[in-house]
Amino acid sequence: MKKWIGICLAIVMGATVIAGCSNKDKEETAGGASNTPQKTEFSISMRTLAFNYVEKSPDLNKDKWVKKLEEMTNTDLDIVLVPHKEFEQKMVQMFATNDIPDVVQGSGGVNGKEMAGSVEAGVFMPLDDLLQQNGQNLLKVIPKEAWENVTYQGKIYAIPEFLSNPSRRATWIRKDLLDQTGLQVPKTVDEYLTVLRAFKKLGIENPYMGRQDFKYADAFFGAYDVFPYLTMFEEVNGQVQPKFMDSENMMKALQTYNTMYTEGLINKEFATINPTNYKNAILSGKAGMWTMNANELLQWEQQLKASTPSAKLEIIASPVGPDGKGGSYLYGSATRTYFIKEGTKNAADIVKFFDWMLSEEAETFFTFGIKDETYKEENGKIVYTSPTDSVAVDEERYRQSFLWLVQDTTYNKGALNTTEEGRSLINVYDTILANEGRDGIQFDPRLDALVKNPDIAPNSDTAPPVLLTHMVKMVYGKEPISDWPKVVEEWLSKGGNDVIKEATEKYNNKVGVTMPRR
User: Fold this and answer.
1) Which of helix, strand or coil describes residue 84?
2) Phi/psi of residue 348, each to 5°?
3) Three-class SS of residue 1?
4) I need a surface site. Which of 65, 94, 237, 512 has the fewest CB within 10 A?
5) What is the signed CA dihedral for 355, 295, 291, 150, rounded to 10 degrees?
6) 32: Cβ–Cβ under 8 A, 6 or more apart, which residues?
7) Do 413 and 364 form a contact (C-beta atoms < 8 A)?
8) DSSP 254-295
9) 445, 111 Cβ separation under 8 angstroms
């Protein structure tokens, strides 16, 4: 354990501790699995996820919803916020300094880059026995696939938030603008470009809303099935390789973005647009089309109407490529995950806290809020009206998504079923999203060759640095797109050959391999 910490310290020599670290004095004997009414005290690190409500809060530990959550669960939380944009870096720093909260929120499985090998190093405790004794709701509701994502050497090491439909991201369009163009809903890449050109003629500043690192701006990589991400491997002539090695289709995707850049269909500064500016541009009515998680459609539409009352948002099928398919990458079964630090004395009560998240009481609280304050009951039925002003929508989104730590994050069924618009969104999941999405061969744990070579290692939804630099230059016209095979060779020379060798061996030996779901 000490050796592992020393290695991490060497990696981040001179790094600072996570911003917003614990500022509560905690008693050594807090909690403990007992039957007394004593509050369960524990600290928990949480990624801000670029939620406005969270990032603008002066002290989330004093937030009224946190206080109500503590009251309902007889807990005393010490929330340590981890900045969204620096999540992986700050997590590594946290492990390096050994300033680890009682509960650590990860972003997926046990082998995520942000976990910095901490599970293997014994930083966290196995939870199997605790779950059997105190987590029956969790075991009953969370699907097997999600538990598998947080299992290491046969033992469960985290409690996962889960996703029943892996197709989560979707293509959004300003339907009111599309109606003004007189065009039909686009399907192919060429039809999409036609619509974007029509949006530009209407004076829309960002016909297609771009974003840094192509994150939430990657629909056309999906059309050509060349997402340069961690999960996108395929078998080609007996060799397992990343999909971005399909140079023919990768160059077509890059050419599409170059065309959009050259014609002004995407912001000239898209490569530096951060999540906040991305959302602000959309909500101020300056965008015509973009990608976002489908479950946020109604909330974003309400916020958009504050600046553009006539706006109408709609989810449409993502652009399809030569094979007639498209869509965003498919998420894993586990989204956020919660690890309990080894030696935490009140671990049993912490598991009970997470188990409560799947109770009817919790569902009512997170979905609708507080009785007679945010909702009413009439004849035994809940009467709830979703907020319309931007600030209140941010607060609702925070309560329903950020603060509800363990749930099926596909969509909030309770809230959507209260309106016709909500039921229509559920139908979108059952029709459009159920029939699109790209996937690939996956490896868990992460391939050693990728762990050893950060420059060539992609993240879950962004390309590795060595590729990303060339991708941006090619879209900006500073490098010829025809040089993509040379980029692949560079990736191979910097350790990619070892990645392919290891991936192929594990694939052939059926070791840690998951096959594509679609």
Assistant:
1) helix
2) -60, -40
3) coil
4) 237
5) 20
6) 38, 345, 346, 349
7) no
8) HHHHHHHHHTTSB-TTGGG--HHHHHHHHHTT-EEEEEEEGG
9) yes
| Predicted confidence (pLDDT) per residue in 213-235, tens digit | 999 999 999 999 999 997 899 99
Query: Alpha-carbon distance 84 to 58, whole Å?
Result: 16
Whether residue 182 contacts residue 195, with contact meaning beta carbons closer than 8 Å, is answered with: no
Fold equal for 40-162+333-403 and 169-330+437-514? yes
Instruction: Decide: 99 and 18 in contact? Cβ < 8 Å.
Output: yes
Q: Does the 169-330+437-514 domain belong in CATH 3.40.228.10?
A: no
Please state the three-class secondary structure of 116-179 as a single string: CCCCCCCCECCCHHHHHHHCHHHHHHCCHHHHHHCEECCEECCEEEECCCCCCEEEEEEHHHHH
pLDDT score of 231: 81
Q: At residue 31, what is the residue type?
A: G
From residue 442, give the alpha-carbon distance in Å to each of 15, 149, 228, 241, 504. Answer: 32, 12, 13, 11, 12
Query: What is the CATH number assigned to the segment(s) 40-162+333-403?
Result: 3.40.190.10
Q: Tokens 């090619």 label which residue?
A: 474
Q: Centre a 10 Å sphere on the Cβ of residue 294 and count the other Cβ atoms it contains.
A: 22
Of the candidates 273, 297, 323, the residue with the CA atom closest to the CA atom of residue 425:
297
**The residue to which tokens 């618009």 are assigned:** 421
* pLDDT at residue 12, rounded to an integer: 41
Parallel, antiparallel, or unpaired for β 159-162 and 334-340? antiparallel
**How is 10-31 classified by DSSP, letter by letter?**
HHTTTPPPPTT---S---TT--
pLDDT of residue 32: 44
Question: Are the beta carbons of 471 and 483 closer than 8 angstroms?
Answer: no
As averages over each run of 10 residues, the pLDDT of the chain (518 residues) reads 42 40 42 65 97 96 98 98 93 95 92 87 97 98 93 96 93 98 98 98 98 97 95 95 98 98 97 95 98 95 95 98 96 93 97 98 97 95 91 96 96 91 95 96 89 89 95 98 98 97 97 88
Q: Contact 9/97 with Cβ under 8 angstroms?
A: yes
Residue spans of the domains in the chain: they are 40-162+333-403, 169-330+437-514
Cα separation values, 353 from 132, 301, 350, 420, Å:
14, 33, 5, 34
Backbone torsions φ then ψ of 126, nearest 5 degrees: -70, 145
Bridge-partner residues for 354, per DSSP? none
Q: C-alpha angle with apex 397: 396 to 403, nearest 5 degrees?
A: 95
DSSP secondary structure letter of residue 229: S
End-to-end distance of the chain based on CA atoms, in angstroms? 40
Q: Exposed e or buried b for every residue in 437-459, given b needs 16+ CB within 10 A?
A: bbbbbbbbebbebbeebeebbbb
